[in-house]
Design goal:
By secondary structure, this protein is of the alpha/beta class. Helices cover 41% and strands 12% of the residues. α12 packs parallel to α16. The structure holds ligand F0G. Ligand F0G binds next to α4 and α5.
Length: 460
């Protein structure tokens, strides 16, 4: 009999953290108190926490051992030099500025490169990235391929840039108004969808023609590299580490939220090949983050991160990582639950317009569904739809994204396959009673990144 070879995690469990089960009554009370926003729940009230893969990873024994080697000198910590050399070795960038997390790097790079009135094309927006571009006076322009906004499309590289959209923008506003193109690998808001190496090479050629640099949001670069390995014929015999390196060499600057790919709980950095950008960023980091040899991280955090970078580009790790996400996604497909396909790298995304077709976007269907999933069995997920999309800064209206999603995000090396079974059953139970689900309305709407702190009440 022919059968697919199973993937198994390339590690075993040495320490466990107990989970707390709650009753349905407890959960109804807890979500009400949290204003129907899963970001406002207390962790103690959550059973399986799939809110995010950010900072929620389990470090290896080697990383924990590295924590004991923290050199907590204010200046010139040895761990910084280890981090710098890991970034140069695995990611190719020459210069490194550490930051407390990804948005710290986005802030500094945006302030350094963007002038009032500039346009920043990108392969779909990310919440914090776009906000920092706007705060610096720029306007984000989406140049991702149309397939990325189409939940039906099975296109294997939904993270690709549409070169026509990009070139149209360049011709319309002029290359001088475009300080850089911002490219995310494994596009979060599109459902963890990859960009292909062929597309990146094409992008490099086009941007070279106009003298426009590329900023790489490399938060999930290794996950993207895995998809290139298994979907792009030319790369099937490359290692993930080789592909990651090549992706980075096609770009000029990078921002990293180390809380994802590199398997740590806190940290980030900005990296660049441009000495002038490096110097300006180094000067800014001391204002907002900390000295340029720690940037908001403890020495021990930088050590764990240096080791995590190396662990994160191993084929066996990424295969199991993406394998677990695929496992959950396929289970949901078997139950007939509408999800974004192809299944992404860091999470499974429910297609809420199909899950709750009777709810209009004005009553925040994805926000509602995330609350219902929590009530069902204590599984915490997050909204990625109209609430996350915020308001148009000119008109003040809601931005209305085509994608109205609930993200079921999987932390690295934390949950087992049995947990994934329980999650799939929980979603299926909510699916069974979907017609009875009603929407929400705002009771409090913060000005920036509203999804984090907004509060809602149910519509009767
Ligand atoms: N870029 C991407 C693609 C991200 O997913 C994130 C964070 C950031 C930048 C910002 O990094 O959180 O370290 O400041 N994403 C988290 C998430 C919050 O849940 O997807 P940060």
């Amino acid at each position: 009999m022919h059968r697919e070879k199973s993937w198994a995690e390339p590690w075993k469990i040495k320490m466990v953290e107990h989970l707390r089960m709650t009753t349905k009554e407890d959960r109804i009370e807890a979500i009400k108190e949290a204003g129907y926003n899963t970001f406002l729940l207390k962790s103690k009230d959550v059973y399986i926490d799939l809110l995010t893969d950010s900072g929620t990873n389990a470090m290896s024994d080697v990383q924990w051992a590295g924590m004991m080697l923290g050199d907590e000198a204010y200046a010139g910590s040895r761990n910084f030099y280890h981090l710098e050399s890991a970034i140069q070795k695995y990611y190719s960038y020459k210069y490194v500025v550490p930051t407390h997390q990804g948005r710290g790097a986005e802030h500094i790079l945006s302030q350094t490169l963007i002038q009032e009135g500039d346009f920043i094309p990108g392969n779909m927006y990310f919440t914090t990235t776009r906000l920092h571009q706007e705060l610096a006076g720029g306007t984000f322009v989406d140049v991702i391929v149309d397939e990325a906004h189409d939940t039906e499309s099975e296109f294997p590289f939904k993270g690709n840039v549409d070169m026509n959209k990009l070139e149209d923008l360049i011709k319309r506003v002029g290359p001088d108004k475009i300080p850089y193109v911002c490219i995310a690998t494994s596009v979060n808001m599109a459902g963890g969808q990859p960009i292909s190496m062929a597309n990146l090479k094409e992008l490099r050629e086009l941007t070279n023609k106009y003298g426009i640099p590329i900023v790489h949001d490399m938060t999930r670069v290794a996950e993207n590299a895995w998809f290139i390995k298994v979907r792009e014929k030319e790369y099937e015999n490359h290692t993930v580490a080789q592909i990651v390196y090549e992706i980075c060499t096609l770009t000029d600057h990078a921002t990293m939220s180390a809380k994802k790919d590199p398997i740590v709980n806190i940290g980030g950095f900005l990296a660049t090949n441009d000495e002038e950008v490096y110097k300006k960023s180094q000067n800014m980091v001391v204002i907002y983050e900390g000295l340029h040899t720690y940037g908001g991280m403890a020495g021990r955090d930088m050590e764990a991160l240096s080791i995590g970078i190396e662990e994160s580009v191993q084929d066996a790790h990424i295969r199991a990582r993406v394998g677990q996400t695929t496992y959950l996604g396929e289970k949901l497909i078997d139950y007939g639950i509408p999800i974004i396909r192809p299944i992404g790298s860091h999470g499974v995304f429910l297609d809420v317009k199909k899950f709750l077709p009777h709810l209009s976007q004005d009553v925040f269907p994805a926000q509602t569904l995330a609350a219902e999933i929590y009530i069902q069995n204590g599984v915490r997920t997050m909204e990625r739809g109209i609430v996350s999309a915020g308001r148009n800064k000119e008109t003040g209206d809601h931005n209305r994204p085509n994608l109205e999603l609930v993200r079921i995000t999987i932390p690295r090396r934390v949950y087992t396959q049995a947990h994934m079974d329980v999650v799939a059953e929980c979603i299926d139970d909510v699916f069974e009673r979907r017609e009875k689900i009603k929407g929400l309305k705002f009771t409090y709407e913060p000005e920036h990144l509203r999804f984090f702190q907004a509060r809602f009440k149910t519509i009767d």
